[in-house]
Amino acid sequence: MGYLLSTTENYHTKELNSLGWELTVCNALYPKNSPCRQILKNKASLGVNLYHFLKKYISFEDVRNYLEIGGGMGYLSYDFLEINSKLHATMLDISPYLLGRQKETLMKYEVNFELADVLKKEGNFFSRFDLVIMNENLGDLPALIPSGSDTTIHSEELIYYQNKAEHLSREYNLRFDDKEIINIGALTLLENVCLAGVKYIYLSEHSCEAAVPATLREFINIARAGFPEKISLKGHNEYTIKFSYLQKIAETFNYKVQSGPIADFLPLEINDKLTAILRTITPANDEQEIIQQFVYDLYKYEYLTIIK
Predict the structure, then answer these.
(1) How does strand 88-93 pair with strand 143-146?
(2) This prediction's pTM
(3) How many CB atoms lie within 10 A of CB 191?
(4) For position 22, what pLDDT does the model report?
(5) What CATH number is associated with residue 138?
(6) Four-residue CA torsion sign, 31, 32, 35, 40
(7) Domain boundaries, position 260
């Protein structure tokens, strides 16, 4: 079985000039008047909710330097630095446009900004950080796509990642199916961070293993695919993540791992108005459509907290 390599590098380095068309959970919650905030029990931004959730598991007294990889518009780190002035952030991004927006958002703080491909960083780069965050963007990393042919032209990068997949399969007992898309970038990155001994790691992304609680299945329909799925977006493709593989890697390094839907720290305030919106087959307006998509994402996105 041959593979093709799917990568978003060209899109993020040369084409991306807006996130207006891609409504992440973080961006959806950032405006104070966001309708998405109003349906949550704690009507705050993602960064605020995430920080207080992580406090249950992480001693922030032990965290001085943290790395956010692919920080979007910088909103999550803005909230972290607002809450905890002792933190020192490094923002690493492959996109010149997004790194520029992060500089604008975080201009009042002393932050290190680095334009780079995180997969080209050596282990000693990560070892200086107490916490590494990668929020809502693991699916942007390279993926190996089964080509159905052994005649694929093998670039140097493709050969590298095919060899890496074989290594990961042996080392962590990851049994890749012949027809399975492999989240090779996400798996490689986590291995690199774990090898560096980073004490705290937080990851989140669309999951191919997501499930909805029985109490909400009449409102939210998420098919549990089990294998990574393609998400077609403007100018590039992303892939949902198989989090059970990431968990195996972390546990091999003796990390304690907790996983679940991001609804764990963004719980809904269930009431008649929300259930009526969720039952609506055709949204009556943009706000209802945004809320339906947002609620779907609360359960389609999963997270891992990985703690040494």
Answers:
(1) unpaired
(2) 0.95
(3) 21
(4) 64
(5) 3.40.50.150
(6) positive
(7) 3-307
